[in-house]
Amino acid sequence: DGGITQSPKYLFRKEGQNVTLSCEQNLNHDAMYWYRQDPGQGLRLIYYSQIVNDFQKGDIAEGYSVSREKKESFPLTVTSAQKNPTAFYLCASSWGRSRSQPQHFGDGTRLSIL
Amino acid sequence: DQQVKQNSPSLSVQEGRISILNCDYTNSMFDYFLWYKKYPAEGPTFLISISSIKDKNEDGRFTVFLNKSAKHLSLHIVPSQPGDSAVYFCAASAGSGSGNTGKLIFGQGTTLQVKP
Fold this sequence. Notes:
Chain A is an all-beta fold. Chain A is about 0% helix and about 50% strand.
Protein backbone atom coordinates (compact mmCIF):
# COMPACT_ATOMS: atom_id res chain seq x y z
CA ASP A 1 0.00 0.00 0.00
CA GLY A 2 1.82 3.10 -1.26
CA GLY A 3 2.00 6.29 0.75
CA ILE A 4 3.94 8.71 2.87
CA THR A 5 4.86 7.88 6.46
CA GLN A 6 5.75 10.57 8.95
CA SER A 7 7.07 9.75 12.39
CA PRO A 8 6.65 10.36 15.18
CA LYS A 9 3.08 11.65 15.28
CA TYR A 10 3.86 13.77 18.35
CA LEU A 11 7.26 15.14 19.35
CA PHE A 12 8.45 17.27 22.22
CA ARG A 13 11.54 19.42 22.18
CA LYS A 14 13.49 20.87 25.05
CA GLU A 15 15.06 24.30 24.82
CA GLY A 16 18.36 24.22 22.91
CA GLN A 17 17.72 20.76 21.51
CA ASN A 18 17.71 19.67 17.86
CA VAL A 19 15.03 17.22 16.80
CA THR A 20 14.59 15.30 13.56
CA LEU A 21 11.27 14.51 11.91
CA SER A 22 11.15 11.48 9.66
CA CYS A 23 9.45 11.30 6.26
CA GLU A 24 9.49 8.17 4.09
CA GLN A 25 7.62 7.55 0.83
CA ASN A 26 7.21 4.41 -1.26
CA LEU A 27 5.46 6.11 -4.18
CA ASN A 28 8.68 6.35 -6.21
CA HIS A 29 8.19 10.12 -6.34
CA ASP A 30 11.12 12.30 -7.34
CA ALA A 31 10.18 15.42 -5.38
CA MET A 32 9.63 15.82 -1.66
CA TYR A 33 8.53 18.82 0.39
CA TRP A 34 8.29 19.97 4.00
CA TYR A 35 5.57 22.37 5.13
CA ARG A 36 4.71 23.97 8.41
CA GLN A 37 1.12 24.72 9.46
CA ASP A 38 0.27 27.17 12.24
CA PRO A 39 -3.27 27.78 13.56
CA GLY A 40 -5.33 29.91 11.18
CA GLN A 41 -2.63 29.86 8.56
CA GLY A 42 -2.03 27.93 5.41
CA LEU A 43 0.85 25.60 4.75
CA ARG A 44 4.18 27.35 4.39
CA LEU A 45 7.06 25.71 2.50
CA ILE A 46 10.23 25.05 4.52
CA TYR A 47 12.41 23.04 2.13
CA TYR A 48 11.93 20.99 -1.01
CA SER A 49 13.96 18.52 -3.01
CA GLN A 50 13.41 17.59 -6.65
CA ILE A 51 16.13 14.97 -6.84
CA VAL A 52 18.40 12.94 -4.58
CA ASN A 53 21.34 14.87 -3.09
CA ASP A 54 19.79 18.22 -3.99
CA PHE A 55 17.39 20.48 -2.09
CA GLN A 56 16.32 24.13 -2.02
CA LYS A 57 15.11 26.51 0.65
CA GLY A 58 11.46 27.37 0.74
CA ASP A 59 9.87 30.48 2.20
CA ILE A 60 10.70 29.81 5.88
CA ALA A 61 13.93 27.76 5.91
CA GLU A 62 15.68 29.58 8.77
CA GLY A 63 16.26 27.30 11.77
CA TYR A 64 15.68 24.12 9.74
CA SER A 65 17.91 21.70 7.84
CA VAL A 66 17.24 18.73 5.57
CA SER A 67 19.04 15.96 3.72
CA ARG A 68 18.09 13.84 0.71
CA GLU A 69 20.48 10.91 0.60
CA LYS A 70 17.85 8.46 -0.63
CA LYS A 71 14.91 8.92 -2.96
CA GLU A 72 12.51 7.53 -0.35
CA SER A 73 13.61 9.65 2.59
CA PHE A 74 13.60 13.39 3.35
CA PRO A 75 14.22 14.02 7.08
CA LEU A 76 13.76 17.48 8.56
CA THR A 77 15.84 18.71 11.50
CA VAL A 78 14.43 21.49 13.62
CA THR A 79 17.48 23.16 15.14
CA SER A 80 17.81 25.21 18.30
CA ALA A 81 18.02 28.27 16.04
CA GLN A 82 14.30 27.91 15.28
CA LYS A 83 12.86 30.05 18.06
CA ASN A 84 9.21 29.21 17.50
CA PRO A 85 9.12 25.54 16.47
CA THR A 86 5.70 24.64 17.87
CA ALA A 87 3.63 23.73 14.82
CA PHE A 88 2.16 20.93 12.74
CA TYR A 89 4.73 19.69 10.20
CA LEU A 90 3.64 18.07 6.95
CA CYS A 91 5.74 16.18 4.44
CA ALA A 92 4.63 15.75 0.84
CA SER A 93 5.87 14.12 -2.33
CA SER A 94 5.08 14.32 -6.03
CA TRP A 95 6.39 13.43 -9.45
CA GLY A 96 8.06 16.82 -9.41
CA ARG A 97 7.56 18.98 -12.46
CA SER A 98 4.49 17.18 -13.74
CA ARG A 99 1.84 19.46 -12.31
CA SER A 100 -0.99 17.21 -13.37
CA GLN A 101 0.27 14.88 -10.63
CA PRO A 102 -0.57 16.60 -7.33
CA GLN A 103 1.39 16.46 -4.13
CA HIS A 104 0.54 13.65 -1.71
CA PHE A 105 0.81 14.36 2.01
CA GLY A 106 1.68 12.37 5.09
CA ASP A 107 -0.40 12.64 8.27
CA GLY A 108 1.97 15.08 9.92
CA THR A 109 4.03 15.46 13.08
CA ARG A 110 2.95 17.83 15.84
CA LEU A 111 5.97 19.38 17.52
CA SER A 112 5.68 21.06 20.93
CA ILE A 113 8.14 22.73 23.28
CA LEU A 114 8.60 21.36 26.80
CA ASP B 1 2.53 39.16 1.54
CA GLN B 2 -0.26 36.60 1.19
CA GLN B 3 -0.34 35.63 -2.49
CA VAL B 4 -3.25 33.22 -2.05
CA LYS B 5 -6.11 34.28 0.20
CA GLN B 6 -9.17 32.52 1.51
CA ASN B 7 -11.04 35.34 3.18
CA SER B 8 -13.73 33.22 4.82
CA PRO B 9 -12.31 31.27 7.78
CA SER B 10 -15.48 29.22 8.09
CA LEU B 11 -18.67 28.26 6.26
CA SER B 12 -21.74 26.39 7.48
CA VAL B 13 -24.31 24.85 5.11
CA GLN B 14 -27.22 22.45 5.36
CA GLU B 15 -26.90 18.91 4.04
CA GLY B 16 -28.05 18.69 0.43
CA ARG B 17 -27.37 22.36 -0.31
CA ILE B 18 -24.51 23.86 -2.28
CA SER B 19 -21.22 24.79 -0.60
CA ILE B 20 -19.18 27.52 -2.28
CA LEU B 21 -15.63 28.10 -1.11
CA ASN B 22 -13.72 31.06 -2.47
CA CYS B 23 -10.08 31.82 -3.11
CA ASP B 24 -8.32 34.93 -4.44
CA TYR B 25 -4.77 35.27 -5.67
CA THR B 26 -2.51 38.18 -6.49
CA ASN B 27 0.33 36.70 -8.54
CA SER B 28 -0.50 36.79 -12.25
CA MET B 29 2.19 34.16 -12.88
CA PHE B 30 0.05 31.49 -11.17
CA ASP B 31 -1.30 29.18 -13.85
CA TYR B 32 -2.29 26.00 -12.03
CA PHE B 33 -4.62 25.75 -9.06
CA LEU B 34 -5.57 22.96 -6.70
CA TRP B 35 -8.02 22.32 -3.88
CA TYR B 36 -7.12 20.10 -0.93
CA LYS B 37 -9.33 18.80 1.86
CA LYS B 38 -7.99 18.24 5.37
CA TYR B 39 -9.42 16.43 8.37
CA PRO B 40 -8.02 17.15 11.88
CA ALA B 41 -4.70 15.45 12.66
CA GLU B 42 -4.38 14.20 9.08
CA GLY B 43 -2.53 15.43 6.03
CA PRO B 44 -4.38 17.21 3.21
CA THR B 45 -5.78 15.08 0.40
CA PHE B 46 -6.05 16.29 -3.17
CA LEU B 47 -9.56 17.06 -4.41
CA ILE B 48 -9.51 18.75 -7.78
CA SER B 49 -7.33 21.02 -9.91
CA ILE B 50 -7.62 23.41 -12.81
CA SER B 51 -5.20 24.82 -15.34
CA SER B 52 -5.39 28.47 -16.37
CA ILE B 53 -6.30 27.43 -19.91
CA LYS B 54 -9.68 26.34 -18.56
CA ASP B 55 -12.38 28.16 -16.64
CA LYS B 56 -14.15 25.10 -15.22
CA ASN B 57 -13.29 21.60 -14.13
CA GLU B 58 -15.77 19.10 -12.77
CA ASP B 59 -15.34 15.84 -10.86
CA GLY B 60 -18.51 14.32 -9.48
CA ARG B 61 -19.97 16.59 -6.81
CA PHE B 62 -16.97 18.95 -7.00
CA THR B 63 -16.56 21.75 -9.53
CA VAL B 64 -13.84 24.36 -9.61
CA PHE B 65 -14.36 27.64 -11.46
CA LEU B 66 -11.53 29.97 -12.45
CA ASN B 67 -11.94 33.66 -13.27
CA LYS B 68 -8.51 34.80 -14.45
CA SER B 69 -9.44 38.43 -14.96
CA ALA B 70 -10.64 38.65 -11.35
CA LYS B 71 -7.84 36.37 -10.07
CA HIS B 72 -10.50 34.34 -8.32
CA LEU B 73 -11.38 30.70 -8.07
CA SER B 74 -14.15 28.89 -6.29
CA LEU B 75 -14.98 25.33 -5.32
CA HIS B 76 -18.61 24.23 -5.53
CA ILE B 77 -19.80 21.12 -3.72
CA VAL B 78 -23.25 19.90 -4.75
CA PRO B 79 -24.96 18.35 -2.89
CA SER B 80 -23.08 18.88 0.35
CA GLN B 81 -22.81 15.93 2.72
CA PRO B 82 -21.85 15.77 6.42
CA GLY B 83 -18.69 13.86 5.46
CA ASP B 84 -17.57 16.95 3.53
CA SER B 85 -17.02 18.76 6.82
CA ALA B 86 -13.30 19.56 6.84
CA VAL B 87 -10.81 22.35 6.19
CA TYR B 88 -10.41 23.21 2.51
CA PHE B 89 -7.20 24.75 1.19
CA CYS B 90 -6.69 26.27 -2.20
CA ALA B 91 -3.17 26.26 -3.63
CA ALA B 92 -1.47 27.77 -6.66
CA SER B 93 1.67 27.20 -8.64
CA ALA B 94 3.53 29.19 -11.27
CA GLY B 95 5.69 28.37 -14.21
CA SER B 96 5.89 25.71 -16.84
CA GLY B 97 8.65 23.67 -18.37
CA SER B 98 12.05 24.30 -16.80
CA GLY B 99 10.61 27.10 -14.69
CA ASN B 100 8.32 24.79 -12.80
CA THR B 101 9.65 23.69 -9.44
CA GLY B 102 6.42 22.07 -8.26
CA LYS B 103 6.17 24.59 -5.44
CA LEU B 104 2.68 25.30 -4.16
CA ILE B 105 1.47 28.44 -2.39
CA PHE B 106 -1.42 27.71 -0.04
CA GLY B 107 -4.27 29.84 1.25
CA GLN B 108 -5.17 29.96 4.94
CA GLY B 109 -7.97 27.44 4.63
CA THR B 110 -11.76 27.54 5.11
CA THR B 111 -13.46 25.27 7.62
CA LEU B 112 -16.65 23.84 6.14
CA GLN B 113 -19.36 22.44 8.38
CA VAL B 114 -22.21 20.56 6.75
CA LYS B 115 -25.15 20.16 9.11
CA PRO B 116 -27.41 17.08 8.83
